Amino acid sequence: MNLYIDSHTFHYEMENLVRAFFPYDKITVLKEYESINSPYVLTSYKDNIEVKLCIDAFEKSLCAPKTGEEAFDELKMAQLLYSLLCEYFETTLPWGVLTGVRPIKLLRRLIDKNGIDNAVDYFKNELKVSNQKLELALLTQKAEREILALSKEKSFSLYISIPFCPSRCNYCSFVSQSVEKAKHLIDDYVVLLCRELEETAKIAHDLELKLETVYMGGGTPTTLTAEQMDMVLSTVTRCFDMSTCREFTVEAGRPDTITKDKLLAIKKNGVDRISINPQTLNDEVLEIIGRRHSAQDAIDAFYLARECGFDNINMDLIAGLKGDCYDSFVDTLDKVVELSPESVTIHTLALKRSSTLNTENIAVNIGIKNESTDMLSYSQKVLLDKAYIPYYLYRQSRMAGNLENVGWSKKGFESLYNVYIMDETHTILACGAGGVSKLKAFSCDKLTRIFNFKYPYEYNTRFDELIKRKEAIYDFYAEYF
Length: 481
Description:
alpha/beta, Double Stranded RNA Binding Domain, pyruvate-formate lyase- activating enzyme, 9-stranded mixed sheet, 5-stranded mixed sheet, 22% strand, globular
């Protein structure tokens, strides 16, 4: 699909909106051109606002007068383009013209600025958001507010990266390596990670930062042995001031890596929340996506965690997996709800650039007409009926049905870290390969990022250089606080 940009700077929003309707197509953005080639979208901002869509026999244009106020005119151009694309596909998108990652953050700001009635009107009539997604957004922003209020001026969260997995799922694009390929790196990695944690704790202490949450993710943290888990987690509790920490999460993740000795090592170090992520309870789908465990393994891991004393367990599911269907997803969700975990996160499949699904051109339906929409509608109905509340939400590019990911929890079991990281509320200090520290000034939206090396072999061999980078944290706090 060719996207022609004539006399305006709105190309980013127009490209994202076109991609929402054409998730498989390469969108070629052309600002300088001598001819126009079909299929195409032409967006012009000369005498007036004009959008033209030409695909096969469909050729139509819409116009609107310019106001000169660019923010308003950009929205009007998006509305015209959306109208044409909806007409061509004979459907609408659940989030309308919204293409951003954080729709809840936008809604909250609009409510604070203009009141809830005006914010609702804007989402519904200007952004074209459906009633179902508007209801979801309103519930989510309400839950988020209570969590965001806990964060203070020098609050921060700690992220710990364990970039290893038993195998790589075909939908995944995270920088993680299979244990078979990276086993020789793990011992040194764990030792260096503990050193980085010690250095980071010193920085936090020097700057008098207050730790709100800790999140160990990956990858799959439980690819480590029980002894390695204990080594890393005990470093956290020994070096950081845990007196202000409200939540300590370990993403246990893959059921085939969860053992009793690992769970006891996690529990021993004060972790109060874990995640067990089957993604689906359909054995055929698990095999298709590259998992090496069964549905029963996931259920057994859940009961084992309960036996070990965990009373705050999250379970992740994915809507739209290859080989899955509506009835299969419904069966999975019903079984998970029967287990009664404290939270359930419903992801929608996204076709990520470096995933096996994308690089090997594996056929999967992420278009705007697929069963994921019905899957998420069922999730919303069932989870609300079972007294789960939506507490955080975000969206991604090339997501099945142009939908969303939602964290649902029982009251009082919301993951604070998920809200803080998604809302960019306060500083996140990240340790480990692939980690990105995000330094947030309390008084404004500006973020400063410090990147760790992506891959474990780089992390291990260039560790001293990585530690040197973290001195920038001192400079940031000297400037903004």
